[in-house]
Each structure stands twice: as structure tokens, then as C-alpha cells.
Design brief:
By secondary structure, chain A is an all-beta fold. Chain A contains no helices and eleven strands. In chain B, the strands form two sheets. In chain B, strands 2, 4, 5, 6, 9, 10 and 11 form a seven-stranded mixed beta sheet that branches. In chain B, strands 1-3-8-7 form a four-stranded antiparallel beta sheet, with no helix packed on it. Classes of the chains: A mainly beta, B mainly beta.
């Protein structure tokens, strides 16, 4: 059965800290790994990763994929209170019918 | 704003009833997926539609059914509601047939369903 595991499940930091969120996966046919940020309801897209070792960056956020070890990390530097959210990792198979989501990491950034 | 809308925002039903949730995708998005997100968990894939045909289904019973219409709207129907059906229901649309184009899914704000 396809599985996505995220760690930690919950994290509390102070503004300015750097955090690393982890996502490991076991899927039958991997095609892509996606990171989402969910604040209230709709998850918003952060990154899509398909190739190993290529870092994707957007401002203070960055992510990288290791297809050999079957994991990805999401880094957030100089955290702000607005980064407080649940960060979801999802893995998609070859035909995209079934994105398997992890349970999410709840990040709380204190002022 | 993703351009994906869902209605209603909240809904309260009782066990055994039937419910229809609606989603309006972005214009031109031929693929729509529905997810169930229980409190404190990640979304779980229910099914996906591409050009009005079911294109994949997760581990949900047949009482979960769907429709997609030519005007980029879709429905999720749940019959014989159970208490465990209480969750946030999300729809997500994408431009092409997922698998042909590596594009991300754009999520709607969700419908919070409570079954009493």
C-alpha cells in the first residue's frame, strides 16, 4: 500500500528560526512529489519535485528530493508568524489519478 | 485565490441522509479530483474525473459517487451518511490529464460536512 510519512507531526519555533520538515514515501510508481501549505482550508501549492538533487527555491522556502532514499525535505529559513500552517507532502503516481498525502506537519511560529 | 470554488461552505446532516457537494473548476481545467480530509489528517483521495469520466478511484465505498459536467463543474454525492463521513471535502482541478502534464492541482476552499 502506498504510504507517505511526515515528521515531525508538530513543531513550535520562534520567529527567525530555521526549520526542516521531512517527508518519506513508499509508492509503487513514483512520478512527482508536491509540497502544500494549508492555513485554513484550501492547500496552496508550494513546490513540485520530480528529479533528485535539484533544489527548488521560492523566497525563504526551499525543497529537495532524494529518489534513491525516497524522501524530501522542505526548509524554511528566517521563519515568520505567517509561516504558521500545516505543511502537506503528497506523492503522485504515473497517471496522476491518486495523489497520496502525508498527515502533515503543523508548524507554529511564535513571535 | 485559485479560481476553484466549492459550495456550500458548511453543511450539517444526520446519519442515513444523502448529500451533494459542488465544485466549480477553473475554466479550461479538464481534470477534477475530490479528497476527504478528516480532522488532523492529510487529504485522502476519493476519485478523479477527466472530461466527465471517472479516471481513478481511491479506497472509498460505492456510496461515494461523482459527476463532472462540460461547464467545468462537478459534484460529489454521498449516500447513507455515516458519522465517520464528517470531514472537510476538497476538490482540486488541473488543466490537463494528470499524467500527461506535470501540473499541480489547484484546491478549492472545501466544504465542511458534519454528520450527527
Amino acid at each position: 500500500e502506498d504510504k507517505v510519512v511526515q515528521s515531525p507531526l508538530s513543531l513550535v519555533v520562534h520567529e527567525g528560526d530555521t526549520v526542516t520538515l521531512n517527508c518519506s514515501y513508499e509508492v509503487t510508481n513514483f512520478r512527482s512529489l508536491l509540497w502544500y501549505k494549508q492555513e485554513k482550508k484550501a492547500p496552496t501549492f508550494l513546490f513540485m519535485l520530480t528529479s533528485s538533487g535539484i533544489e527548488k527555491k521560492s523566497g525563504r522556502l526551499s525543497s529537495i528530493l532524494d529518489k534513491k532514499e525516497l524522501f524530501s525535505i522542505l526548509n524554511i529559513t528566517a521563519t515568520q508568524t505567517g509561516d504558521s500552517a500545516v505543511y502537506l507532502c503528497a506523492v503522485g503516481g504515473p497517471y496522476g489519478q491518486n495523489f497520496v498525502f502525508g498527515p502533515g506537519t503543523r508548524l507554529s511560529v511564535l513571535p | 485565490e485559485t479560481g476553484v470554488t466549492q459550495s456550500p461552505t458548511h453543511l450539517i446532516k444526520t446519519r442515513g441522509q444523502q448529500v451533494t457537494l459542488r465544485c466549480s473548476s477553473q475554466s479550461g481545467h479538464n481534470t477534477v479530483s475530490w479528497y476527504q480530509q478528516a480532522l488532523g489528517q492529510g487529504p485522502q483521495f476519493i476519485f478523479q474525473y477527466y472530461r466527465e469520466e471517472e479516471n481513478g478511484r481511491g479506497n472509498f465505498p460505492p456510496r461515494f459517487s461523482g459527476l463532472q459536467f462540460p461547464n467545468y463543474s462537478s459534484e460529489l454525492n454521498v449516500n447513507a451518511l455515516e458519522l465517520d463521513d464528517s470531514a472537510l471535502y476538497l476538490c482540486a482541478s488541473s488543466p490537463g490529464l494528470a499524467g500527461a502534464v506535470l501540473d499541480e492541482q489547484f484546491f478549492g476552499p472545501g466544504t465542511r460536512l458534519t454528520v450527527l
